[in-house]
Each structure stands twice: as C-alpha cells, then as structure tokens.
Amino acid sequence: MVEYTCSRLCFKADLIEPLKDDDSFIVHTPNGTFKFTKADFYRVFSNVIETKSYQEGRIYSYQSLPQRAIQFLISGQSKSTIPKQPKKSVPTKDLIGKEIRMKIKEIGTIWRNSPNNPQIDNEVLKNWNNLIEEWIADKDIPLIIRKETNKRGQSFVHPCGREIIVSDNTVAIWAYSNVLKGKIFTISQIKKLLDEKELPVVFMATKEIKAKAKYTKPLGSYALSNWRVCHIQSVGFNTNTNIEDLKISDIEDHFRKYVNPNNMFVLPKEIGYLGEIDEFIEEQKR
Q1: What is the mean pLDDT of the chain?
Q2: Which of 144, 163, 167, 198 shows a CA-CA span of 20 to 30 A to 244?
Q3: Are 258 and 164 in contact (CB under 8 A)?
C-alpha cells in the first residue's frame, strides 16, 4: 500500500499510476487521513487526472479541501465538522503588477530564443498543418476532442454523421512527440492508425476506460517525460454543451487548435506552469 504525507490533499502521479485499480493509497494531511483505491481516485477525481499538473508535473494539490474528498476520510477531523469552503472573492485590482508581468514576458522571450528550446523544422510544421487541414476535410475520419474527459476513449456520432472521439491531452502530446522526432504522416496513415485503434487517445488505459471505451491505446512511449506540452491559443470549448449538441464547425476549430503542433510549444517540467501565463505564451507565438 502506498502512503505519504502532504501539507494539504495532493495526488502524486508517480506513486498512484503504477497501482492496480483495486490497490489503495493513503494521504496524511492536516485535515485528516484519506484512503483511496486507484479506481476511486479515477472515478471521483477524473478531472484531476486530465490536468497538466498531474499529467506533466506529476502532482496535483488542493489549496482547500474539496467536499468530495470527505467520503474518503478515515481518521482525523470529523466529517461533520469540516466546514464548507467559502467562495473566493475575485480581486478587483491587478495583484501582480506591470513590473512583474514585464519580467514574465522577458522570460518568455529568453525561452523562445534559448538553445535548450527544441527547434522544429519549418517544413515539418508545414506538413503537419497540411495534414490537420486534410484530416478535418475528410469526413470519413473521426475528429478528436478534449472535453468530458471522464469519457476518454469513447466515441459519439455527431448529428452531421461524423464520429467524434473523446480524449485528454494525449493526442496533443503524441503529435508533438512525433514533431520533435521530425516525423510526419499521410492522411492514409492516420486513417489506418484510427481504423486499427493504434493512435493513442488515453494517457493510461485503466480497467474502467477499457470497459467503456472504443479507443484504448495509451500514450506509452510517446510520453514526453522531460517536457510539458502547452497550447498557444486556448483549446477549451468554454461551454457545458453536450458533445452531440456542439456545432461541427466549433468541433473542427477546436480540433485544429488542439492537435496542430503549430499551436503548441514545450517547456521543461520544472517551469511548466509558465505555459499558462498570457504574457509568457504571447512570446511563444511563431
């Protein structure tokens, strides 16, 4: 059994992921001790699994205790005495300030020009851009989206008749992993990978995913252990609309930003969170 102590509730991917679904892990915190099976964690905290913090930083922690964790409390503070966390007020002033934002922008420029920043051949990026557009245009090939990640690997038929596959950030990582190797694909190769279910669409194929999903190929050797893949333009839908009710044009636009390496850059995992800051991202635009 895995057991560790943190100053607040946190999930450590390097300790959790090797476990089997029925294996347990225990987290000791100032709010009490919590016990989860891996299956419980994947079921109740499915959103955590898909975060960049967990997938690439290998750890996800909560600033305040989430109510859904209380059911797993095995000792410590009484469940009935744990107060509901108050909603945080939104600050009305810029607490960061112009000077710090300019420094972040400066760091972004330094990274863009750093010899440690992988340089991608323009022809490789051009070929991938053409591939993505050809992929979108071929209505017989499924599109892949990053939404409702509790349905990873499952697919749906959109009212327009096109198959839509649900993924996490796996496909973006797979694409950029190939870009770093200078590898490109033809549309027929992509179609074959999908037909044979050999294109990775899940970070890890758990028992629960295998029971429900049509596509269960895990990321495996395509995982970028030293890098964090970041998007330049946000890929979020910014809506709770069901997949089937989304406009196909919105799905196509999402896919274009989500899978196209031209909308990505990488950072060393130690500074991966910079990839979420607008001032830093702006400097990575090609």
Answers
A1: 89
A2: 198
A3: no
Q: Are residues 167 and 260 in the same domain?
A: yes
Q: Same domain for 240 and 131?
A: yes
Does residue 40 sit in the same domain as residue 177? no
CB 149 within 8 A of CB 202: no
Cβ neighbours, 10 Å, residue 75: 10
The answer on pLDDT for 219 being more than 90 is: yes
- 277 versus 53: the higher-pLDDT residue is 277
Indicate whether 52 pLDDT > 80. no
- Give the single-character DSSP code of 261: G
Q: Based on the fold, state whether residues 243 and 146 are members of the same structural domain.
A: yes
What's this model's pTM, rounded to 2 decimal places?
A: 0.69
Overall number of domains in the chain: 2
The rounded distance, in Å, linking the Cα atoms of 248 and 251 is: 5
Helix (H, G, I), strand (E, B) or coil at 77: coil
Q: Which domain holds residue 243?
A: 117-282
Q: Which of 66, 81, 96 is the last residue before a domain boundary?
A: 81
Task: For residue 71, report the phi and psi dihedrals to the nearest 5 degrees.
Answer: -65, -15
Give all strands (DSSP E) within the chain, no chain letters: 2-5, 10-12, 24-29, 32-37, 59-61, 73-75, 143-146, 155-157, 163-167, 227-231, 264-268
CA dist 173 → 242, 254, 266 (Å): 25, 16, 10
Which residues make Cβ contacts (< 8 Å) with residue 106, sequence separation at least 6? none
Paired sense of beta strands 73-75 and 59-61, if any: unpaired
